[in-house]
Amino acid sequence: MTAPHIHRAIDAVWRIESARLIAGLARIVRDVGAAEDLAQDALLAALQQWPESGVPNNPGAWLMAVAKNRAVDHVRRNRLIDRKHEDIGRTLTSANHDAPVDLDDDVGDDLLRLIFTVCHPILSTEARAALALRLLCGLTTDEIARAFLVSEPTVAQRIVRAKRTLAEKSIPFEVPRGEDRSGRLASVLEVVYLVFNEGYTATAGDDWTRPTLCEEALRLGRILAELTPDEPEVHGLVALMEIQSSRSRARVGPSGEPVLLLDQDRSRWDHLLIRRGLAALDRASKIGGLGSYALQAAIAACHARAVVPEATDWAEIARLYAELARVAPSPVVELNRAVAVAMAFGPQAGLDLVDALGDVPALRDYHLLPTVRGDFLARLGRKDEARLEFSRAADLTRNARERALLLDRARDCRSS
Fold first, then answer.
1. DSSP 3-state assignment of 84?
2. Is 242:274 a contact under the CB 8 Å cutoff?
3. Taking the mean position of all CA atoms in its chain, how far away is CA 364?
4. Whole-number Å distance between alpha carbons of 300 and 188
5. SS3 72
6. Which of 30, 86, 132, 178 is least surrounded, with the fewest CB atoms within 10 Å of its CB?
């Protein structure tokens, strides 16, 4: 395997394994920032050794072993000056302080602890989200900045301050109980939602989706549903993830290319996941009505119930988006509502809504705005304008698969 192939393999392994590494390390060193640094050390070791030795048969285990040893060394070096050395010593071993730690033990709980730690109320909402995408999704500051439509220095500053605050305040690495858990739950749900969305449609890279992130987010959502059975928004989020996950096999073509919703082979949708999602949505509704996640799940359910695209109740979807805009207003929700309105009442109705969003600062560099506008223009027969919009969207996206799709649509407008 050539060096470029090795580096691509390392990058792929890192995107899959980094959250587990950081979560396991944080359990030992009780410092999220130090845990990320140690995980990066293991990544550096891979970059130095794998080009010569080759990628190991189990690269995740290799990284875990290297990270584990470095974490133990880190604890030993800092034991005398660490006020928590006795607690950390008990974590390392009940009898022998020099024994290695099994980071593979209870990995799922470690990820949940990491999420609750990142979501501590001592951090701002923006800092929690940025740190979560950094630690749980392995996104760069540039990718996070583009996801939130803010500057890269702003994101970098949020992440640095968040890690410093967690360390200085000695925030426990744990899943809290009682009121502390309830108080942090909304932020935890937001983080799980962010992780799932990054898996569902990757912000950047060569792949349209990152299935491992979707699977982790859904698994953690199910755990949260067991921990908080009377919280309707937990079940709403689980319902949304179950239904969205049901389309996974149909969303990617034979060569990894994106397959849009209306073009998908619905016989490939996972009907077990759909049933689970509909049941979770029904549970959320019975407990406490429809919040933002449950409303999104209700929209997804409209698609899931349609055997063929033509059977989709777009008027109901437009109504649900209007309700979502009332409950959780955002420019992105309005953009999605425009799509539903166009499908229900024609592309001109959708275009009128999209044009009203053109001056919203948050959407200025958001690639889906010109994508949607291009679609409406193409359906109206305004091919030249549509081509320019698809080209602009291709320039804005950082995902290679999405860029290729948008450039194809631009070419189709030129040739038709």
1. coil
2. yes
3. 22
4. 22
5. helix
6. 178
* Other Cβ atoms closer than 10 A to 75: 21
H helices of 173-313, in order, are 178-200, 211-227, 232-245, 271-288, 292-305
Cβ count within 10 A of residue 231: 20
With beta carbons less than 8 A apart as the criterion, state whether 208 and 202 touch.
yes
Alpha helices per DSSP H over 79-177? 85-92, 107-118, 125-137, 141-148, 152-168
Look at the alpha carbons of 50, 54, 60, 64 in this order and tell me if their dihedral is positive or negative.
negative
Answer yes or no: are the C-beta atoms of 171 and 120 closer than 8 Å: yes
Q: How far apart are CA 83 and CA 102, in angstroms?
A: 23
Please name every residue paired with 258 in a beta bridge, in sequence order, or none if there are none. 252
What's the pLDDT at 105? Answer: 36
Compute the Cα dihedral for 217, 222, 223, 228 and give only its sign. positive
pLDDT of residue 394: 96
Residue with tokens 């291009």: 374
Specify the pLDDT at position 86.
Answer: 52
Residue 346 corresponds to which amino acid? G
HSE of 341, CA atoms in CB hemisphere, 13 A: 17
Integer angstrom CA distances of residue 384 from 359, 379, 395, 410: 22, 12, 17, 9
Q: What b-and-e string marks burial along 314-331, b requiring 16 or more CB atoms within 10 Å of the CB? A: beebbbbbebbbeeeeeb
Location of structure tokens 């189709």: 412
User: 268 near 251, Cβ under 8 Å?
Assistant: no
Q: What is the pLDDT of residue 79?
A: 63
Q: What pTM was estimated for this model as a whole?
A: 0.75
Q: Round the CA-based radius of gyration of the chain to a whole number and report it.
A: 23
- CA dist 48 and 64 (Å) reads 16
pLDDT at position 272 is 96
Residue 54 and residue 216: Cα distance in Å, rounded? 28
Burial environment of residue 133 by CB neighbours within 10 A (0 to 12, 13 to 18, 19 or more): buried
Mean pLDDT for each 10-residue chunk of the chain (416 residues)? 69 77 82 85 84 81 84 72 51 40 45 85 88 82 78 91 89 79 85 88 82 86 87 96 96 91 95 96 91 96 96 98 96 96 97 93 91 97 96 93 94 80
Best CA proximity match to 320, nearest among 304, 336, 331: 336
